[in-house]
Amino acid sequence: MQYDFNKVINRRGTYSTQWDYIQDRFGRSDILPFSISDTDFPVPVGVQEALEQRIKHPIYGYTRWNNEDYKNSIINWFSSQNQVTINPDWILYSPSVVFSIATFIRMKSAVGESVAVFTPMYDAFYHVIEDNQRVLAPVRLGSAQQDYSIDWDTLKTVLKQTATKILLLTNPHNPTGKVFSDDELKHIVALCQQYNVFIISDDIHKDIVYQKAAYTPVTEFTTKNVVLCCSATKTFNTPGLIGAYLFEPEAELREMFLCELKQKNALSSASILGIESQMAAYNTGSDYLVQLITYLQNNFDYLSTFLKSQLPEIRFKQPEATYLAWMDVSQLGLTAEKLQDKLVNTGRVGIMSGTTYGDSHYLRMNIACPISKLQEGLKRMEYGIRS
After folding, report:
1. For the chain, how far is it from start to end, CA to CA, in angstroms?
2. Helices (H), the chain
3. How far is CA 182 from CA 142, 179, 213, in A?
4. Quick one: DSSP state of residue 27?
5. Residues of the chain with pLDDT under 50
6. Strand partners, 365
7. Rounded to the nearest 5°, which phi and psi values hold at 332?
8. Torsion on CA atoms 140, 146, 152, 157, rounded to nearest 10
9. How many degrees, rounded to 5, is the angle at CA 213 between CA 376 and CA 158?
10. Contact between 224 and 250 (Cβ < 8 Å)
11. What's the pLDDT at 350?
């Protein structure tokens, strides 16, 4: 069917983090938000129908995720979308990708040991690492003009340190939108194997990849010392329904994770609506995804044209993946604090400061919204900066 992503849906009054609680992040509620990573689009029809059908059943008891329907939806999705074969034994449920990552950080490192990361980085990971009393070991990616290239010498130096036990990879990368190439992944795997570093790969944005790039799961290059964490929630806009999964090729590590999930935290009974939505999304959502990617690409094209015309000081390179625009604002001549003041209090628009992700010279803007909202947001951004 044809989806109308131009349709504006009022999300206020739904307990939406992005819309109803925007004041928590920006200090005021009368602004247009482009912040947290969910979309302003409705879920696929197949997902909505599956949820409505399940809700007709009036009992919501404890739910088992370890079944063929659940696992096959994931296996078939990766097969059709990425032409890879996933062993069903590898698949484990998790309440969230971040829970999976935090759990494997504790499983595969000790307090005081280091977790290597590529920066800038999704802000939650700073807390996950440091609040678990691990040490952040950053490896800075190159600029947009350098295609967010990897500094291999620095990466090698970090990985060879005896304290470094884990590399936390985000593929595709948030906030830059970089998709790591097969050659890059092979080199990363080789270095981690050389220095006995465990790879945790967060692949939650893996479905929204544009034509010039190609995503490959890191498990295609190694099945030792690796876990891949993923979810359907970013692609199909269902994070409020809760649910994620992971691929762990090693049986011993699967048992360790299940002990953490079930025995230690009592989280193994999945959200039934999360399970139903994921299966419906993966079983019926391919057409939705194709149309979504096309729409997002058009939004990025509009953003690029607008910036070149109205705000040429802002440098922007379209990402290879995600719906996040990572914009270089260093040539505006404003501090991050002053820029946020202008955007929020003059322009009345909420766009995330790059400081949140580790680089004060950037803004991160979520463009997964109807084009009319994006157009209004960019007008507000221009007004705030020029005033």
Report:
1. 44
2. 22-26, 45-55, 68-82, 97-108, 123-130, 152-159, 182-194, 233-236, 251-258, 272-284, 286-310, 336-341, 371-386
3. 18, 9, 11
4. S
5. none
6. 325
7. -75, -20
8. -30
9. 100
10. yes
11. 98
- CA gap 223, 245 in Å, rounded: 17
pLDDT at 320: 98
Q: How many Cβ atoms are within 10 Å of 126's Cβ, its own excluded? A: 17
pLDDT at 212: 86
C-beta of residue 118 within 8 angstroms of C-beta of residue 139:
yes
Work out the burial of residue 29: count CB atoms within 10 Å of its CB; fewer than 13 is exposed, 13-18 middle, 19 or more buried: middle
What does the DSSP assignment read for 272-288?
HHHHHHHHHHHHH-HHH
Query: What distance in Å separates the CA atoms of residue 86 and residue 175, rounded to the nearest whole number?
Result: 27
Q: Which two tokens stand for residue 122?
A: 């999704």
Q: Are 277 and 73 spatial neighbours (Cβ–Cβ below 8 Å)?
A: no
Contacts of 137 by beta carbon, 8 Å cutoff, 6+ apart: 114, 115, 116, 117, 158, 161, 163, 164
CA separation for the pair 65, 92 (Å, rounded): 8
In this structure, what token pair is assigned to residue 39? 């979309």
Distance from C-alpha of 140 to C-alpha of 156, rounded to nearest angstrom = 13
pLDDT at 236: 98
All structural domains of the chain, each given as residue ranges with its CATH number in brackets, are 22-44+286-386 (3.90.1150.10), 61-284 (3.40.640.10)
pLDDT tens readout for residues 50-90: 999 999 999 999 999 999 999 999 999 999 999 999 999 99
Could you report the per-residue pLDDT of 291-314, keeping only the tens digit for each?
999 999 999 999 999 999 999 999
Q: Which residues contact 304 (CB under 8 A, 6 or more apart)?
A: 316, 318
